């Protein structure tokens, strides 16, 4: 939905280029043993303790995350057609809520309330709620984020962002990082059963699912899709490379896209085309 890595975009906005590069390298080093979510959690503590950058600074920086205008119009058109839009992301709940709010996209009520509470703790004006009739996201599956610090516990220091994994216990998926299995998350978003011994579906599966991705961990949900579904993979990225190397790994149709305007056109095309 945005052409930036929200995990690192805020650091790029808040520190100089050399410090940014060193921070990302340190995150990669931590990630090798503890995982990326733990690495970013460390980075926000470092940002507060050594750079004096608070959670409010981070949230304001996230407001500047660019989002393709054609995708925002596409989301509005999809919502007007009654298409349910959901997000499965390895970012985190606070960042996703802040970026979408900044672009006038409504998020689930629980995320909106959490963002308002985080803004209060971070000592900044709460995000304004987008108006009725705008684009909206119905469900979000991602890592958990919140604000803790001086305003939260009465102690000294700078309020900072904290993170914890979506999956507290690794689910053992060979295709996904321990913090989030996107295939399992997709089943949860859709209300369908996932794997042997899973609970019965909470609701009938939608007539068609259109999944958008670009990374290696987007292959797992792609493998969950049916023949009638569509996987939109970004050209030149790891998902497209994996699909090219093993086309039989998915049952669904695969379409490639390169930029936001091309993706928006494909999403609208899928919305109006009858399900196979």
TrEMBL record:
Molecular-function annotations in GO: metal ion binding; phosphatase activity
Binding site for Mg(2+): 214
Protein keywords: Magnesium, Metal-binding
Cofactor(s) demanded: Mg(2+)
UniProt source species: Cafeteria roenbergensis (Marine flagellate)
Annotated InterPro entries: HAD-like_sf, HAD_sf, Pase_PHOSPHO-typ
A Pfam family reported for this protein in Swiss-Prot or TrEMBL: Put_Phosphatase
The name this protein goes by in its record: Uncharacterized protein
Domain of life of the organism encoding this protein: Eukaryota
Keyword presence, Metal-binding: yes
